[in-house]
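Bump. Still looking for Helix-turn-helix domain-containing protein structure tokens.
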Amino acid sequence: MSEILFSKRLVALRDSKKYSQVELSRIISVSRQTIVRWEANDTYPDVVLLMKLASALNTSVAYLMGETDDPSPIPTFVREKTVLDTTKKETESPDTSPQKRTPASIIKQIADINDALDQEAPFFEEEDIDIAKNLLKRCEKTLEKESSVRTEESKETA
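Sorry for the wait, here they are.
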């Protein structure tokens, strides 16, 4: 993390939200002096406080830490996925429809998403985690349902 960049971004974001140091300190449950020290480049927040700070300032931890110049609070992989999904729907032709995907390509997509989760999960809010868990449960139920249908079909043909 670039400590100077962190301090500058913290001050700029706090000012853009029109928060005083006291207001921001109350929002993330730290003392005003803690905010003063962060802005003066004397100390730095731990991971938990970084996440609270990013949430309060409507940005990402990566932006605060100087890992990206994009202040958007949405993780990059989520935003890119949304854009890719929209583009895909617009350009989809009958021979590339989702029904023609192979199991191998779907499994690869799941693996790619898992890799992205490995990198981004520490920055998820509780709500994001709940959404991801619910989607995983739905995927599992879909696979279980399909598996039981196939089992029944194989019993009928035997």
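Helices lie at 3-16, 21-28, 32-39, 47-56, 61-64, 76-91, 103-120, 126-157.

Edit: fixed formatting.
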